[in-house]
């Protein structure tokens, strides 16, 4: 019989790639969506026909309990989060409730129903925050620097407590930045791919950016969801750091994107202080040795190939009129 997987945050970038992977592997995939957002499932394109949607408020413990009881899923992937980090300063409590509250309510539901569900918690390298050593691994201390990271850390520890105290099969992937052409345009990779494509087509004149010296460990989202799945197939639940182990600056990102369209970025990119972050940290880079060893982690898409893929996709979208050139965040 097909395994059932529940996914929160199914309409996001990772939700798309994970659903696609699970469907390919014969799963019955169910997305949990708040009633007022159930239409957003359309974002998943052709996958929609194969996915079932359960409408429930993620803030509703009884509703979540009923769904877990009724569907008895073999796997739950908790991806839901307001994932654009700067926004969390505007709504720290809302961020905490969605991120930590959802994890806590789902874990409680699994415990109460008493089934052998395997639980994946989407943790983040942002939890490492103000790092004192690089690269980071599963033993690196956490020093979160913003409300989003603090909420994710709380959710992470709640998951660990359920594993240690109640014996649930629960684990976290501590994922570094992972990107694709499905990233919303306020995130830096997509902002740059869309900006470079729009400038190439003569649809815009400049691209306003924040800190060009900021560095990140960027990989391809499609590679990362494979690791989420593999974490739940291991004999024992354990947490894993997932990243490429390579740092690139925003300047390198901009250079790569403009190179793809044969332009010199210096002529088009301007720094606007509005996009600078005061709490920025520069050395968030993964040591994925444990994932290499236990999960066979080997990213398939390089930084350059990822950026090229994104720029080409945005050129195509702009040329076909599927998106407006000023959708850059
Ligand atoms: N968004 C944005 N816009 N970022 C800029 C800009 C700009 O104009 N200019 C420079 N940056 C820098 C940011 O300061 C940051 O250092 C880096 O680009 C990446 O920013 P984002 O793409 O917004 O992602 P993020 O690193 O804040 O967070 C993402 O990765 C985390 C994992 O490490 C998100 O996906 C989080 O949800 C995730 O947890």
Looking at this protein, list some descriptive labels.
alpha/beta; Rossmann fold; UDP-galactose 4-epimerase, domain 1; seven-stranded parallel beta sheet; two-stranded parallel ribbon; 38% helix; 15% strand; globular
Task: Spell out the blueprint of helices and strands.
Elements: E1 4-8, H1 13-24, E2 28-33, E3 52-55, H2 61-71, E4 75-78, H3 92-113, E5 118-124, H4 147-166, E6 169-175, E7 178-179, H5 188-200, E8 207-209, E9 215-216, E10 219-220, H6 221-231, E11 240-242, E12 248-249, H7 250-260, E13 269-271, H8 289-295, H9 303-319
Helix pairs in contact: 1-6, 2-3, 3-4, 5-7, 5-9, 7-9
The chain binds guanosine-5'-diphosphate-alpha-D-mannose.
Guanosine-5'-diphosphate-alpha-D-mannose is lined by residues 83, 85, 124-126, 176-177, 186-188, 191, 209-211, 214, 216, 250, 275, 277, 280.
